[in-house]
Amino acid sequence: MSKFAFKQFSVQQDKCAMKIGTDSVLLGAWCPIEKNPFSVLDIGAGTGVLSLMLAQRTNAEQIDALEIDEDAYEQCVENFEASHWSDRLFCFHAGLDEFVEEPEDEYDIIISNPPFYSEDYKTDNSQRDLARFQDALPFEELIEAADLLLSENGIFAVIIPYKEEERFIDLCSEVELFPVKVTRVKGSHTTPIVRSLLAFKRYELSVLTADELVIEINRHEYTDDYINLTKDFYLKM
Q1: Domain Methyltransferase small spans what residues (predicted)?
Q2: Tens digit of pLDDT per residue, the chain (237 long)?
Q3: pTM
Q4: How, if at all, do strands 107-112 and 39-43 pair?
């Protein structure tokens, strides 16, 4: 499907290796919004869906996206220009290492659905591999950038495989970024946890309670929690 329609915007995705998936929509809908964030940074933007979701959810005046793949970058720009919020959205065609060399801004929200699969195998599609595999954007590099670019009271939000949760939290603690919200995601009540939604700030909570989100009761029969989280975006929710 080359075009994905949401309630307030549409996303063209034919040039992007990574199509719109549940992970991005979950993260964009779940990301904590505190007070009135002025600036947002979306690292590894792909289609730009996270930036567009945060443009819908906030009044942030500066929403910057970063995309290294040329085709995805061009598509992200097209999607931004076609939206109601084009004056607030900007995409940089650069890698994270280039972007952090001369940081000009701090951001109140840094959001990323980073490429993962640290396993060794690669497919025949190098563009998809770049989008999917962690060596394109190691967690360490992402966290270092978040530490450098996050405003004093800012929030850094990601979705990662559940099996990587502990390591990711440990890496963040090394730069004094601490979890303030943790939600673990299961496909159904009977399946294992597959994803972790994590939000970090620069201070530590004395008590942190993780919660759980189940997506489906049965095939295409969604839980109330999932519907309530995503209903502002999905057409059929």
Answers
A1: 39-125
A2: 688 999 999 999 998 877 888 999 999 999 999 989 999 999 999 999 999 999 999 999 999 999 999 999 999 999 999 999 999 999 999 999 999 998 788 999 999 998 765 454 455 666 665 555 545 678 999 999 999 999 999 999 999 999 999 999 999 999 999 999 999 999 999 999 999 999 999 999 888 999 999 999 998 899 999 999 999 999 988
A3: 0.91
A4: parallel
